[in-house]
Amino acid sequence: MGNIRDIAKLAKVSVTTVSRVLNNHPYVSAEKKEAVIKAIDDLNYHKNMNAVHLSKGKTNIIGVVLPFINHPYFSSILEGIALEAQLQHYKIMIIQTNYKQEKEKEALELLRQKQLDALIITSRSLPLENYSLFKEYGKIIMCMNAMDNDFSSVFINHFEAFHIGLTHLTESGHRKIGYAVGRRVGTNSHARYIAYKEFLSQIEEKPREEWIFSGCLTIEDGKRIAREWNQLEEKPTALILTNDLVAAGCILECRKLGISIPGELAIIGFENHEISDLLDITTIELPLGLMGRNAFNQILQSNKVQQIEIPYRLIKRKTV
Amino acid sequence: MGNIRDIAKLAKVSVTTVSRVLNNHPYVSAEKKEAVIKAIDDLNYHKNMNAVHLSKGKTNIIGVVLPFINHPYFSSILEGIALEAQLQHYKIMIIQTNYKQEKEKEALELLRQKQLDALIITSRSLPLENYSLFKEYGKIIMCMNAMDNDFSSVFINHFEAFHIGLTHLTESGHRKIGYAVGRRVGTNSHARYIAYKEFLSQIEEKPREEWIFSGCLTIEDGKRIAREWNQLEEKPTALILTNDLVAAGCILECRKLGISIPGELAIIGFENHEISDLLDITTIELPLGLMGRNAFNQILQSNKVQQIEIPYRLIKRKTV
DNA sequence: ATAAAGTATGAAACGCGTTTCAGCGCAAGA
DNA sequence: TCTTGCGCTGAAACGCGTTTCATACTTTAT
User: Fold this and answer.
1) Domain identity same for A167 and A262
2) A94 and A69 in contact (C-beta within 8 Å)?
């Protein structure tokens, strides 16, 4: 297949000129350009991008760190990122972590080793301090509130969003409220926990640990919640669930168990996934695609660090 | 940060020796090794992977071509691929096509330009002939039957699977059967079409074009099918739908419309997605994760081209 | 007519890790 | 004693595109 020097030889020009033709730089005479193009064609030449990357010191590849690929929450963000990346001719490498810190470290290593130009972290388990050490190697965008550590970020105010949910429930007469999260730790889960405690103390209810369901991300987890709820000695009358999938799982399991929604149990989900529309689940919309798009665009704001807050919105349907 | 030559200078050894230390090659004396390690540490040295890629002529990155990221069918395959890739220290670049041929061509270009070592095509719109031209640049694995063009592939026999579905429906007394597909064209859709025509002629029923719903991939599409079915002059009594999401959308919309399932309309989905379990949808299980894992492993079978057929399985639940 | 600006072109250096090959010293087998 | 062969090391070539700098010829502006 040959390289750029072979082309130069064949076309009787310098490699510089070949490079200019390849990159559409000006200042190449028509004849030389033609000769180069012919040589490229004759030798069926194609760039070796690894040489380009080495030479330029960048790859136009960004890494997206996400715990699970096959979960609509993350794949919605990913799709948003991909959409914008494509427009700017960036490629995407996915790094699935399963919340293993090792995997996050590997992602950072890829950045340091110049394999990636930037990193978007959709969710993490490694402390921000670890990330700080790698800032010098490329932009790192956080899809969570990371203001204090001075990272560019795109996030939803989960504290407020959760608060809105709680308010809606109390306005509908609920005082005994539980909730579910994906992990017990994590920025968003923590925000929800704080909001929960604060709100309950405001309405003078005691927060109950047994009404907090953690490790809930999927439909299956939602089903589990329904069954566990059913076994509870004292039952909350309302649940705010991790996301719409969990809500869907919980609601449909409740139907099977003969638990009336929202009669016996009110439910609020998060995301406004199409399943929430289908099942008429009251939910708090999270514009995840938008989040992804914004996250990518932060990368191009090469100099400044900035935070973007993404709006959420309560969508009242029939489960409260 | 310095490069390998700086390390060599500082440690007073040759670059070869540094390279040996970096790659854990034998035949380096303990003292030199130590000196190198110290130098690496002092200079805070880290490899530039782009140089490695250029030098080695490979990147350990594979490309996964998929029409949509945020669709469980494809993200299940992707997760399977990612799982296996991780074990072999391969990275994954995703190339979302939206079935645009241009995007598929770009993916092939990445392979040719040595940015990717191999390609896994989960679904395509570009003819196989185009792919054939790029075989010489790296392995290309097809997640569909591609025997005749001599590609390594992992696939489900959609003809048979569909046939099983049809058989199950007729055994349950149905003769007026319609179905849905994602696209009108495409290997799998075609297999279903052939199976449909052949089967109906066997049971001496005329296939009806108006009972074939195309462009159906999501829950929303399922809802549409329910509404369209309801408007039909003459209605099929059973539908085999693209996947479980479409089935779920259709079923839940039918509930709203007061259409009894399976009384008035029987439904079979594909995939055995957790939603099908939740909604008791009769479905044909497609082990997509397994498919992805096998697809990746085909890459490592560096020499031989082989086809792997993935099993499917009818799961009888309550919608037939 | 002369300085300034634009067009065109190429040599050489740069980015950087891997690998081949040659060579030397020393120990084991013939 | 002589031949293998293993352990260890480094010079140099290899993979290859980009970019800087110097140079020289045309035009255009003054």
Assistant:
1) yes
2) yes
CATH of the domain at B35: 1.10.260.40
Question: Is there a single domain that holds both residue B147 and residue B166?
Answer: no
- Interface of B to A at Cβ within 8 Å reads 46-51, 53-54, 57, 59, 61, 68-70, 72, 75-76, 78-79, 82, 86, 91-96, 109-110, 112-115, 218-220, 223, 248-249, 252-253, 274-275, 278-279
A193 and A223 in a single domain? The answer is: yes
A55 CB below 7 A from strand D atoms: yes
A252 contact residues in B (CB cutoff 8 A): 278-279
**B48: which nucleotide lies closest, measuring CA to C1'?**
C16
Kindly report the backbone phi and psi dihedral angles of residue B203, in degrees, each rounded to the nearest multiple of 5, phi listed first. -95, 15
What's the CA dihedral at B256, B257, B259, B260 to 10 degrees?
A: 20
CB within 8 Å: A69 and B46: no
Same domain, A67 and A151: yes
DSSP state of B312: -
| CATH code where residue A106 lies | 3.40.50.2300
**B144: nearest Cα among B133, B154, B152:** B154
**Residue among B108, B120, B117, B111 nearest B81 (CA):** B120
B246 contact residues in A (CB cutoff 8 A): none
**Angle, CA of A289, A106 and A192, to the nearest 5°:** 45
Torsion on CA atoms A180, A186, A187, A188, rounded to nearest 10: -20
- B75 and B150 fall within a common domain: yes
**How far is the C-alpha of A301 from the C-alpha of B300, rounded, in Å?**
40
- Looking at the fold, whether B113 and B30 belong to one and the same domain comes out as no
Q: How far is B112 from chain A (nearest CA, A)?
A: 7
Structure tokens at A72: 């609509």
Tell whether A52 is covered by a domain. Answer: no
Strands A177-180 and A212-213: parallel
Burial class (CB in 10 A: 0-12, 13-18, 19+), B135: middle
How open is the CA angle A144-A123-A114, to the nearest 5 degrees? 100
Range of the domain at B26: 4-47
Nearest-CB residue to A70 (from B61, B76, B86): B76
What is the pTM (predicted TM-score) of this model? 0.95
Do B263 and B305 belong to one domain? no
User: For an interface test with B, which of A53, A64, A70 has the most B Cβ atoms less than 10 Å from its Cβ?
Assistant: A70
B221 falls within a domain: yes
Nucleotides on chain D that have an atom closer than 7 A to a protein CB are 7-20
In a domain, B52, yes or no: no
Residues A23 and A65 in one domain: no
A69–B50 CB contact, under 8 Å: no
- Looking at the structure of chain B, the number of domains it has is 3
Is residue B117, in this structure, part of any structural domain at all? yes
β-strands A91-96, B91-96 pairing: antiparallel
pLDDT string in tens for chain B (320-residue length): 889 999 999 999 999 999 999 999 989 999 999 999 999 999 999 999 999 999 999 999 999 999 999 999 999 999 999 999 999 999 999 999 999 999 999 999 999 999 999 999 999 999 999 999 999 999 999 999 987 778 999 999 999 999 999 999 999 999 999 999 999 888 889 999 999 999 999 998 888 889 999 999 999 999 999 999 999 999 999 999 999 999 999 999 999 999 999 999 999 999 999 999 999 999 999 999 999 999 999 999 867 889 999 999 999 999 99
